[in-house]
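> tool_call: predict_assembly(chains=two)
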Amino acid sequence: MKPSPFTYHAPTTTAELTELLGTLDDVRIIAGGQSLMPMMNFRFVQPGHLIDLNTVGGLAYVDVQRDFIEIGASTRQRFLQRSQDIAKHMPIVGEALSHVGHRQTRARGTIGGSLCHFDPSAELVNMAALHDAVLTLTSVDGDRSISFGEFGLGFLTTSVQPNEFLRSVRLARWPEGHGYGFEEFAMRHGDFAICAVSCLMTLDDRGAIDRLAVAVSGVSETPVRLTEMEGRLRGTMPDAGTATDLAAAAGDIEAMSDAYITSDYRSHLARVITRRAFTKATERADQRVRA
Amino acid sequence: MKDLRTISVTVNGTPYSREVETRRTLADFLRLDLKLTGTHLGCEHGACGACTVRVEGEAVRSCLMLAVQTNGKSVATVEGLAKDGKLTPMQNQFWEKHGLQCGFCTPGILMTMTEFLEENPDPTESEVRDALSGNICRCTGYQAIVDAVLATAAQARGEQ
């Protein structure tokens, strides 16, 4: 229940950080430590070198641009929860964050740490999938930007190379007045979700779906976007029939099974939660259209 | 082959300088090196909340931070709440409302809820329960804890 010995490094600049990453082997980067520290305490992870991201300046920020919001990797979950910019332009992120752990873990936990840990049921991983995230990875060779699909490979696995760190993530903005809904089911509030579904929607002036995005988490090893259905439902009215079609698509995702939760139950939850998230997004989009 | 660092930390207003092994958690640093055993360790993986302390004013899990990460920072623990033997209003309300039975979870709950009331001086019961969700009490005393926190808030607002 105590971490095994490691050599600790506290770089203060990204140049120092990439230099360390380029020269050391057997490295783990610690950000908020809310996933890595438990794994080290249990000795599931026993790194030879631990590099602290907390001492590196300039990695915690929220920068609102016309088409996206860029968030620095070290930005704390609690900071995002309190950010007026996030509340105004990307309110679903605040809703998702209320399900992430507890206030004490959100005070330390970072968006970059959540993404790099890549738990398939993590709410911020879901947000990255939903918002077509573009992630910037940095090494001594410079920056490279990759899509969320290229970033997340599977359970606790990303394509970040040993000499790279995640510097920032860009989440695509949706127009003012879009509808949004985030719903999840967990055994207790703050636990890892068994299933979480997020939905963004814009309506045209007839009240029909103009644009739709749905991300389903906890069912597979990465969040799944219902891409085909998002396209097919364009132009249809967001009614009970549409919700049923969407829920059916979520239920068709091949679901994982473990000692506690069967795949059938996960699929059932995916259908139920998808319907709820879609309905909530519809209600919110609707109100704005009529207003 | 121990990886050692000398750190300077202010705990409950008192500055300390100590050489620590870098793998030392903040919780163990407080308990074993500074002998401040009021901070309790339940699960050591961030689930129970018993070890909650405040670092730079924010309530955090001290089992999920390394002591070396608090270098140059200020830490507040349960020992710093009462001054000259005088309990804080929240501690008094825990006494009055029977907000503790065995007391193991109490230090973490006091540190969490003290921070919470500074942020939200007029909470609803539901908000108190949400803020309390990261602290486990196995005596099942939540109702009395919620009562104590709500009474503390009401008292601070001059309603009691």
